[in-house]
Design brief:
By secondary structure, the protein is mainly α. It has 14 helices and no strands. About 0% of the residues have low confidence.
């Protein structure tokens, strides 16, 4: 009997969510009855299930031709390439890397073999790229991984859905819309965690989370794109066409800002970071160390007797936590 009443309420809710409460009252339940909560939860889960299994781009084909969506994706891809190239020209990043590599070769104390270079490359991919092991703060690292893998999943599935399954006739595998929503959600979790609690402006310098500077352009447009994408998909699944179109427009606007402002944001940073990490490993391996002196070993008599080590000559090897004694919150 209980299941029958729930099913009856859900049938009413499926026809029109605005009469859900009226439908519950129709069966004689008080406003504080637990069945109301159960039914509402079931309806919410039903709508969430519809949303995450639904390809939101296929519904767009009713008023936006598929080729228009595809042209937009290609245009964003070209904007990223153009932005990275202009960034390289403006900051002379590529020139710096090549000149630095040539300088390191001249200062190298040993020749690094091809097998060792391959090993260093794999270590760079495994540590600095795939797991962000260079981030010592565990919270910062987890937040970064959520954001990075969420962004990759979101972008890749967007391209697949737009190019391979742009219309309702092209039924997408259930896993693709699920990954699209999951990627956007992961991006939001990692991004908002960083924005509200972890970034140095908030955690160490005492600035309010809503303070914006130009350096925030990337993270703000990234979070806006993922957030508006989820809200657009939710309203589309609920059949709220007006709100759906509104948030879709915001999704497109924020996505255009994200991919169109690469020259002024930190977007290009993700391409240079792996190259810089690999170069750093290579200079350590060949002994050039970017023309920096080797780290002093106080257990080595030759290092201990150097003039610059005179004050530390008789000091304890255990110097304590130092600046790591407490978090930097002295704003």
């Amino acid at each position: 009997m209980f299941r029958g009443k729930v099913d009856a309420v859900l049938r009413l809710a499926t026809v029109d969510k605005t009469i859900l409460y009226a439908g519950i009252k129709l069966f004689g339940f008080a406003a504080n009855n637990s069945l109301i909560i159960v039914c509402l939860h079931l309806v919410i889960f039903e709508e969430l299930g519809k949303m995450i299994m639904n390809n939101p781009f296929s519904e767009l084909s009713a008023f936006i031709p598929a080729f228009v969506m595809q042209v937009y994706v290609v245009a964003m891809f070209l904007l990223v390439i153009a932005g990275v190239v202009l960034d390289m020209i403006h900051k002379k990043s590529a020139q710096y890397f090549f000149e630095n590599a040539q300088k390191a070769q001249k200062s190298a104390k040993r020749t690094v073999s091809g097998a060792e270079k391959t090993s260093l490359l794999l270590k760079t991919i495994a540590n600095e790229v795939l797991t962000s092991a260079e981030l010592a703060n565990p919270r910062r690292r987890i937040s970064h991984l959520f954001t990075m893998y969420g962004f990759i999943t979101f972008i890749v599935t967007t391209a697949i859905l737009v190019f391979a399954y742009p219309t309702p006739a092209d039924q997408a595998p259930t896993i693709l819309p699920l990954l699209w929503h999951l990627g956007a959600l992961m991006l939001c979790v990692g991004g908002y965690w960083f924005w509200l609690f972890i970034r140095v402006d908030v955690s160490s310098e005492g600035h309010p989370w809503y303070r914006l500077v130009r350096a925030d352009l990337f993270i703000v447009s990234l979070l806006a794109t993922a957030t508006f994408a989820l809200i657009w998909s939710a309203f589309q699944a609920m059949g709220a066409s007006g709100l759906s179109i509104f948030f879709f427009a915001l999704f497109i606007l924020s996505g255009t800002v994200l991919f169109g402002t690469v020259l002024w944001s930190k977007f290009a940073h993700m391409f240079f970071k792996p190259a810089a990490a690999y170069q750093k490993r290579l200079t350590k391996a060949d002994g050039s160390r970017e023309n920096l002196p080797e780290l002093a070993d106080r257990t080595n008599p030759a290092d201990r007797d150097r003039h610059s080590m005179e004050l530390l000559k008789d000091a304890s090897l255990d110097m304590g936590l130092g600046i790591e004694r407490e978090a930097p919150r002295h704003y």
